[in-house]
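HOLO CASE FILE
Compound: 3-isopropylmalic acid
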Amino acid sequence: MNIKLAVIPGDGIGPEVTEQAQKILDKIAGVYNHKFEYKTLLAGGAAIDAVNNCLPDETIAVCKASDAVLLGAVGGWKWDTLPGDKRPEMALLGLRKELGLFANIRPALLFDELADACPLKREIISSGANGKVELDIVVIRELTGGIYFGEKGFKDTPLGKAAYDVELYAEEEVRRIAVVAFDMAMKRNKKVTSVDKANVLESSRLWRQVVAETAKNYPEVKLENLYIDNAAMQLVRNPRQFDVIVTSNMFGDILSDEASMITGSIGMLPSASLKNGNFGMYEPVHGSAPDIAGQDKANPMAAILSAAMMLRYTFALSKEAEAIERAVKAVLAKSYRTGDIYSEGKTLIGTKEAGDLIAGEIR
Ligand code: IPM
Ligand code: MN
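Model generated. Tokens follow.
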């Protein structure tokens, strides 16, 4: 296959981890006879510094003309004092909206090799029968609607100046994300948990109704509804009850951070943001980590696993995706660890070495 990729290294550790992901893709290209053509683009703080605009038009245009987008991370202290609409994070929101990436897929998977990094008690994450550690959840977050993109502004009230952000969901926005969740559940353990606040919010009542209608097309899938507060609690009380979680933009932002943390390995988790069809943007769940940027300390595995997700979802190259996932696991099994997942007795490695070791496992 000949693949045109837009690459947005971004800020902080973004460039370092993205470089390793490209190293792995090049290795895949050699072994499986594909060709990746990269166009490196500016977005986030790097773009603010270079052209005083966090999301240049050219970046959007080249992304649209590419087969998929690989992104590192955006943001950092340096730009923290800019006004809200000028911050590097706006680049992410702009890309999501401009590229129509309404479905955000965030797996929270505990790697057996890293079970000790999980902050939950062993009995909570392992099945009674064989004591095998199991945590394999996918959070499907709606990404281009809700309070993130609703009307916002300021007004005067009897209590003084006030600010507001509107949560609004159209039926069709709910339906299409529900379809993504049910399709995903059909390929997994056939359970969808829809998370809302339907005891309080009108938008959540509509959400719940549309999800229930969509569920009728998936008789094999078990649908459960949870309120967000209960869901946040259940995630630490008994995470093994979850398979696919589907929720709004705001709730998904929060729950996906919580879900990733209970795996103990946020530095390991990839994500995909998809549009109808195959186009998608792929990025690690972790942020730009400015404190360790440029020091060869960052864990590139989330970026590398994001490249694997890209091969699977956008290009249907599951053999190649599995080869990458196997290679990552092999490196972990050989006791190599970057600082974020290091524990005593393991071999501490840097960003580049991690990339080299993983590339070496792909044959
Ligand atoms: C995320 C991030 C973004 C979000 C920020 C950086 C705008 O937290 O991707 O989860 O809130 O969506
Ligand atoms: Mn977030």
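CASE NOTES: The domain at 1-102+271-363 is CATH 3.40.718.10 (Isopropylmalate Dehydrogenase). Residues 253, 257 surround manganese (II) ion (ligand 2) (CB under 6 Å).
CLOSED: yes
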